[in-house]
From TrEMBL:
Lineage: Eukaryota, Viridiplantae, Streptophyta, Embryophyta, Tracheophyta
Taxonomic source organism: Lagerstroemia villosa
Family as reported in the entry's similarity comment: Belongs to the universal ribosomal protein uS15 family.
Cellular component GO terms held in the UniProt record: chloroplast; ribonucleoprotein complex; ribosome
CDD domains, A to Z: Ribosomal_S15p_S13e
Subunit text: Part of the 30S ribosomal subunit.
Alphabetical UniProt keywords: Chloroplast, Plastid, Ribonucleoprotein, Ribosomal protein
Compartments (UniProt record): Plastid, Chloroplast
Domain of life: Eukaryota
Protein's recorded name: Small ribosomal subunit protein uS15c
Length: 90
């Protein structure tokens, strides 16, 4: 039924040291998004979870745009590791 496809891109040692880093936050938000998405496949009318998912998506989007401006090479690597689409630029 539910796939547990959580990502461990960053090693355990790095997680303890760099919890405030942009990369760690993006990975954390991606894990939350995947978990909420699988929850919403079963519970379609859970509107509070839908709202939470939209808020987390917005936060991750802002972090990704900041990270792409700050370090484009690492951004491309992270996008490919997480298997998410590149954000649209305005």
């Amino acid at each position: 039924m539910i796939k547990n496809s959580f990502i461990s891109v960053i090693s355990q040692e790095e997680k303890k040291e760099n919890r405030g880093s942009v990369e760690f936050q993006i990975v954390s938000f991606t894990n939350k998004i995947r978990r909420l998405t699988s929850h919403l496949e079963l519970h379609r009318k859970d509107y509070l979870s839908q709202r939470g998912l939209r808020k987390i998506l917005g936060k991750r989007q802002r972090l990704l745009s900041y990270f792409s401006k700050k370090n484009r090479v690492r951004y491309k690597e992270l996008i490919s590791q997480l298997d998410i689409r590149e954000s649209k630029t305005r």
